[in-house]
Amino acid sequence: MAVGIAEISIMRTSLEQYVTSANDAIHIKLVKTPSDIDDDSKNFHPEFTHQLFGQSENIFGYKNLKIQLYYSAGLLNLYLGKTCSEKLDPTRLDNIPADDIAKVIIEKLGVHPTDSLDKFRSELSKEDSFTPFGDLLHSYSVHKNGEDTQFEIYKCDTTTPGFIKYHERLQTFLWWFIDAVSYINIDDDRWIFYVVYERSVINGKPQHSVVGYCTVYKYYAYPTKIRPRISQMLILPPYQRQGHGAQLLEAIYIDHRQNPTVLDITVEDPSEEFICLRDYVDCKVCMHLASFSTECLQEGFTEDMAQEAQVKLKINQKQARRVYEILRLRVTDESNANQFKEYRLDIKKRLNIPYQREKSDMEKMKKALKPEELAATMAGQSLQERHNNLEKMFQELLVDYRKVVERLARS
């Protein structure tokens, strides 16, 4: 007997009640004390779940679903639990079961959390025994809510005793907050790790809590240099917008500037947020270099800028050029039509380089292609379209550059 449209609509509406957004359902928490377990204000949600639950980022089979993913703040012991008001009976839908949430999370993250909240709670008493791995590289304080909180950055590598096992838990945060992430090959000894901790005193005892971390890979640069590449950086949501990313990046830079074998520092596939962070950190140090003085900036980008930024700060030429453009905007009076026109033309000249190369390639093709082939090849942007595109790119850069200039003014 055929199922009518009305019946199908009713069935779809009924099943939609069992579809939950994974991003909303998952509640992550860093737990320092037993009281934190019941404090919902300390919960935060993942930004990405598609790598576990598919592109729709939905979980099927539950009503009013809540998944608890709790980490002890220092040791990173893990509790995984869930609650729901109803679980779908698989016989209602051709024996299609509800998603096995625990299986998906455990297999993807590669960890073995406890499902006993009592056990998790009892192990919190061990948190004050945790000591960060590696060498203390940098310490600083953040003033918030009327008091100063202390933070420390430690450096580790694959030979640091006990760190590899700890990293198995630490890296699980990446699945929730970095798009298209994958675990690194921990057997490769060219990896370096930088971990940020909050240092507090709880019940009269010092305690360290994870804030975030960064991985750096030491690539070989011919003939005798290395070119470290920043691979993954994460500051956990409870600590974001507090300056920890800048502190961590500055610590990494300072650590590598002391190494004469380092040519320069690069970044692997940076997000927009990281690009802005890097711009700010690099501008803050470059603005004190002689070649980046106000007088030099107004004369345009020079080889001296590229050289000084690389030799003294390990900043590569492409990034040095970007820093120059931001710092020149900083000293440009935008209300002065001539000054701002000179700045705009300077940036557009750089943006136009790919088009100039394309034009040169076209001249070569004119000599090599048949007329009909040349016509097909040259079917593309008109001159006016290119001008419009350059203006659009310039305006987009201005938005990003102004954010950095504003942050520099506040620092």
UniProtKB/TrEMBL annotation:
<protein>
    <recommendedName>
        <fullName>Histone acetyltransferase type B catalytic subunit</fullName>
        <ecNumber>2.3.1.48</ecNumber>
    </recommendedName>
</protein>
<dbReference type="Pfam" id="PF21183">
    <property type="entry name" value="HAT1_C"/>
</dbReference>
<dbReference type="GO" id="GO:0061733">
    <property type="term" value="F:protein-lysine-acetyltransferase activity"/>
</dbReference>
<keyword id="KW-0808">Transferase</keyword>
<dbReference type="InterPro" id="IPR037113">
    <property type="entry name" value="Hat1_N_sf"/>
</dbReference>
<dbReference type="Pfam" id="PF10394">
    <property type="entry name" value="Hat1_N"/>
</dbReference>
<comment type="similarity">
    <text>Belongs to the HAT1 family.</text>
</comment>
<keyword id="KW-0012">Acyltransferase</keyword>
<dbReference type="InterPro" id="IPR019467">
    <property type="entry name" value="Hat1_N"/>
</dbReference>
<dbReference type="InterPro" id="IPR013523">
    <property type="entry name" value="Hist_AcTrfase_HAT1_C"/>
</dbReference>
<keyword id="KW-0539">Nucleus</keyword>
<feature type="domain" description="Histone acetyl transferase HAT1 N-terminal">
    <location>
        <begin position="18"/>
        <end position="179"/>
    </location>
</feature>
<dbReference type="InterPro" id="IPR016181">
    <property type="entry name" value="Acyl_CoA_acyltransferase"/>
</dbReference>
<feature type="domain" description="Histone acetyltransferase type B catalytic subunit C-terminal">
    <location>
        <begin position="278"/>
        <end position="329"/>
    </location>
</feature>
<dbReference type="InterPro" id="IPR017380">
    <property type="entry name" value="Hist_AcTrfase_B-typ_cat-su"/>
</dbReference>
<dbReference type="InterPro" id="IPR048776">
    <property type="entry name" value="HAT1_C"/>
</dbReference>
